[in-house]
């Protein structure tokens, strides 16, 4: 029963994380009139305050400082730059009615992760996974060949988050500690952006109480799903977490079409069809591999 409860808790945390990421555009859309650089800066600073409080409350500050040095610190500097690019592009996409392209990027991302694992980590593909990546590649090529428009958004999000995940996979630090150090690395730049905006008269903070509250909420909005994800990943198999990650882009796509009425071109539909088929193959392959491992373990 303990194992079942452990797994159920993991599913709750994992679904919660991806559901929160899925509805993130609803929050960011409320900030669409604020320059993306300022939204990103507030996201960094308020997240750092919240994460620092969690680290201190759990008495993890000293071990964290001990770990975050040398090669680990260098890797986290790289991952911080990648997550900053990812956040900025995503904020800009939501504010400029490109949520369809943003959701496409996160559909591509799991397949990018598989490709990076093969190319850089020496992992092996089965036939279904190879077919999944091939279908995704054809979809992207179709979109590019037919005048992909803002395909750069999809590719920027998929590649930046893919390489971010790769660095975090090999860096010897946990999710909470890594995110805390990353936001600390980005904090001086974020503070400089906000100070410049304030002195130039373009700063958004301090003009409207409601908007100030929304900007302050950037901290928990950013940190909560990441902490839920970390808790879920500890309780679930990696395969299960991989399947759950399709929740977020599905919600984002539905919001783009049903709430914000973004137009969808035929080439985009064709690309989505191929990506969804690729994701389906990837999911089927993951489930089959998991069943084989479970059967072998019982034998």
Q: Give me the Rg, rounded.
A: 20 Å
The low-confidence runs, each spanning 5 or more residues with pLDDT under 50, are none
Number of helices: 13
| Helix share, percent | over 70%
Distance between the termini: 22 Å
Task: Tell me what the structure shows.
There is one protein chain. The protein is an all-alpha fold. Helix content is 83%, strand content 0%. It is built from 13 helices and no strands. The protein is globular. The mean pLDDT is 86.
Which tags fit this structure?
299 residues; globular
Topology:
Blueprint: H1 2-29, H2 36-57, H3 61-67, H4 70-95, H5 99-121, H6 127-145, H7 151-170, H8 175-199, H9 209-216, H10 218-235, H11 238-244, H12 247-259, H13 266-298
Helix pairs in contact: 1-10, 1-12, 2-4, 2-8, 2-10, 4-7, 4-8, 5-6, 5-7, 5-12, 5-13, 6-13, 11-13
Quick overview:
The chain has 299 residues and is mainly alpha-helical. It is 83% helix and 0% strand.
């Amino acid at each position: 029963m303990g194992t079942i409860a452990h797994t159920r808790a993991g599913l709750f945390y994992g679904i919660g994380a991806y559901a929160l990421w899925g509805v993130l555009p609803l929050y960011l859309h409320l900030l669409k009139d604020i320059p993306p650089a300022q939204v990103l800066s507030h996201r960094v600073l308020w997240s750092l305050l919240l994460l620092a409080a969690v680290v201190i409350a759990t008495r993890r500050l000293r071990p964290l400082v001990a770990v975050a040095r040398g090669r680990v610190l260098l890797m986290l500097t790289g991952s911080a730059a990648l997550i900053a690019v990812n956040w900025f592009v995503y904020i800009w996409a939501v504010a400029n009615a490109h949520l369809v392209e943003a959701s496409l990027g996160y559909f591509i991302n799991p397949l990018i992760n598989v490709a990076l694992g093969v190319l850089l980590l020496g992992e092996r593909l089965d036939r279904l996974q190879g077919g999944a990546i091939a279908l995704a590649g054809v979809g992207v090529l179709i979109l590019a060949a037919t005048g992909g428009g803002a395909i750069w958004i999809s590719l920027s999000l998929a590649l930046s988050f893919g390489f971010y995940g790769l660095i975090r996979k090999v860096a010897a630090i946990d999710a909470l500690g890594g995110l805390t150090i990353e936001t600390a690395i980005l904090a001086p730049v974020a503070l400089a952006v906000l100070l410049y905006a304030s002195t130039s008269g373009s700063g958004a903070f301090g003009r409207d109480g409601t908007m100030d509250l929304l900007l302050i909420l950037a901290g928990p909005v950013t940190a909560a799903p990441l902490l839920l994800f970390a808790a879920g990943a500890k309780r679930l198999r990696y395969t299960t977490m991989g399947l759950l990650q399709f929740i977020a882009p599905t919600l984002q796509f539905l919001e783009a079409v049903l709430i914000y009425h973004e137009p969808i071109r035929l080439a985009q539909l064709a690309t989505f069809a191929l990506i969804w088929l690729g994701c389906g193959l990837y999911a089927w392959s993951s489930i089959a591999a998991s069943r084989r491992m479970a059967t072998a373990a019982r034998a």
